[in-house]
Amino acid sequence: MARPPHRPARRLHHYVVKATWMLIACLVFAATYFLIHGPEGPQHWSSDLMIAYGAQQAEKQDDQIALIYVTDRTLKDSASTAPVDRELLATVVDKAGKAGARVIGLDFVFDHVSNGSYDDKLAAAINAAPVPVVVGALDQRSAAAYDAKWQGDYFAKIKGKAKFAHLYFEDERHWLMNSDQVVRALPLSDGATPSFAEALAAPDKPAAAAPSALLAWLLPVPQIDWQRPPAGVDMFVTLSAEDVRDSDKPGTTLPLDTLLGGKRVIIGGDLSDRDQHLTPLSVKGPIYPGAWIHAQVLSQILHNRHLYALTLPGEIAIGLICFALGGMIGSRQIAEHYHRLTELTCVAGLVLLTWLSFRYTHFLFPFSFAFVGGMIGIVTGHYFRLRERAYRLI
After folding, report:
1. DSSP count for the chain of H helices, then E strands
2. Which of 9, 120, 337, 364 is the most core-located residue (most Cβ within 10 A)?
3. CB neighbours (10 Å) of residue 393?
4. What is the 8-class DSSP label of residue 195?
5. Could you read off the pLDDT of 273-309 as tens digits, one per residue?
6. Nearest Cα to 212, choosing from 31, 39, 51?
7. 95-154 tens-digit pLDDT
8. Which of 64, 286, 268, 297 is nearest to 169 (CA)?
9. Helix (H) or strand (E) holding 159
10. Which residue, 226, 234, 233, 212, is CA-closest to 258?
């Protein structure tokens, strides 16, 4: 039987429609990834779940890091709560130095005057410390307004003794989407000022180039009886500032030499009204104080722990590959007769691949990118199979 004379036009129309649908599918795929938070962006959502439930767990308490927290209880009777009582900080710095700390880090902002005599006491304690002291600083990247001149003038008083490091945590954002305020990235050097954790690790352990910008979180170990830390910080020796301050009072048996000796000691705040952050671990836990996050970064540097991930071009490539594979699967006859089973099998395979890659290689497979690309591919392949069947019947 001879072909109808309008057959070539139909074939051209078929290819135009096919190309149009593929373009629409790619645009939907890109919009899904970049514009929908779901709840924190498709890739962030799946990665955060993977980290919260599958990250490496600490086998024991870290023997190189200790935390001293200034809490709401610590400041209950203090004359100054914001800025934090700097006379108290001076006492804690002095006690930590005498206990044999390796390095002392002050995770506080010094951008406004408090009590003039207290400011001088803290400067004197830093200058008299027998070990290096790392002092946190703000720079132009910090969202909060601060008095750069006062900070510079105060730092000049301790410049000969202290090292200065920025306290900035990266916020992932771009022109289409606001940050979700979850700390995921390593706060590394900006080229001029080291990050707080890098300064605490140096010079014994300078930070090497990380294979990705992601922070390799470590899950807590079970609680240790003598500690009184907030939930989730028991992987580090954790003390309260008031206990350290009162450690030389009669009847006190706190062994500071044992607890702090040889460790990198971070003195920071665990206060209800400031410096509290969401992390991937907050999926099943609390928000965490900045000092604890700095301790996680420091632990990663000291123990060469890394988390691997693809860059954006790599994620796009995975998405396109899964889109092509989905199109091939969707265009097969088996997908037409067993489409639900086919889709469930593909999703289960992606989940298993994502889990195994993270569990055994610490690689975050771009699950959301692959899932969206694969599902759009299956739907597109199935649609064109139906179109092709209808075309053949004409």
Report:
1. 13, 10
2. 364
3. 6
4. B
5. 888 998 998 888 788 999 999 999 999 999 888 899 8
6. 51
7. 999 999 999 999 998 888 887 788 899 999 999 999 999 999 887 776 566 677 888 888
8. 297
9. none
10. 226
Length of the chain: 394
Q: Which two tokens stand for residue 368?
A: 């959301």
- Judged by DSSP in three states, 289 sits in strand
Residue type at position 296: Q
The dihedrals phi and psi of 109, each to the nearest 5 degrees, come to -95, 130
Sequential DSSP letters for 122-191: HHHHHHH-SS-EEEEE--TT-SS---HHHHHHHHHHSTTTEEEEE-PPP---BTTB----B--B-----S
Cβ neighbors of 314 (< 8 A, separation 6 or more) are 366
DSSP 234: T
> What is the residue type of 189?
S
Kindly state the helix (H) or strand (E) to which residue 313 belongs, with its residue range. helix 312-330
In this prediction the pTM is 0.81
Instruction: State how far Cα 285 lies from the chain centre.
Output: 14
Q: Count Cβ atoms below 10 Å from residue 324 Cβ, excluding itself.
A: 14
Amino acid occupying residue 287: I
Structural contact between residues 138 and 190, judged by C-beta atoms closer than 8 angstroms: no
> Tokens 């702090």, residue?
260
Give the residue extent of every domain in the chain.
20-53+309-393, 57-303
Q: What residue type is assigned to position 357 of the chain? A: S
Question: φ and ψ at 145, to 5 degrees?
Answer: -70, 140
